[in-house]
């Protein structure tokens, strides 16, 4: 991390935009996730520099590949930066006018209000005037945006249900009006047919002298005029009913589309709520495990005086005689990891996933380990994938933890003890 900070300050003082390998390593995953869509990653896989990942790569594996490629100075990272610069050229050009963090923050707030987060995020992460503390705050804000829907879920669910009820009521009303108009139209058509039949049965008018016509209009001519006027009114009413039916049909279609969109939105929110409930259950489990670990820490441990400590003959319900390998995690938390593991009578081995420790040491460490822990939030995707494959090859139990905190470790240790 220190190396990344030194690189960042050097680039900032030079006045040139950062490249992908000059940004902080912990931000690469968020840059790929926020700024690239799935179709963008598939488009990259068709380029010559990414020919090795065309066959059989899932979207997640492609994401991991791009995160790893971004950290090195290579043709892949250059091609990735070129794609992002072209995709967000307007945002990069807009942020280039900012010369300090205050001006950058003003532009960032405008983008947040307009929903243009991806372009602003890429421009800020590569901006020469953005310091480490400011980049961390922008990263944290974007990280928490994914959880903002929790507070609005109940309101959205109620509005969706209300909209569904309104659509159902309107459909009933429109259906009744539609049937009423159809009945009225059918009645008018029947009357129109009768009138046409009566007009057809009328005798043809006989020619009379012009003087007689002017003096006294014939009864037949008056009847024909009355029938013609009524026929014209019926035709006008028929046109009005046809137009009204078309309007009602369009309204019904619009309501059905709104209902479909509301149902789709509700389905997405239900999935998000299910995922949130699952995460909440995991957090409750981790909290319970931490409480048990803290409680266990207040009781005097008899392992120091036991002759069977660290052997298979240990009578305690703990991890005596086991070796725990922890891959990744926060460097400053390693002593706390070791303390928690050793309280259960197990031996603790740590490997940082390849940052400072050589990757070739992993097979040797795996050979002597009984259980392998790996937190997904504080280890590279490539290292996590590599350790998982090694554990499968050496038939070692592998536990992928959701975070590098002590609560996640306590939870998994509690499961291992049970």
Automatic annotation (TrEMBL):
UniProt feature coiled coil, ranges: 245-293
Pfam families in UniProt: DUF2325
The organism's place on the tree of life at top rank: Bacteria
Keyword Coiled coil: yes
InterPro entries: UCP020408
Keyword terms of this UniProt record: Coiled coil
Keyword Coiled coil: yes
Family to which this protein belongs: Belongs to the UPF0751 family.
Protein name: DUF2325 domain-containing protein
Native source species: Desulfofustis glycolicus DSM 9705
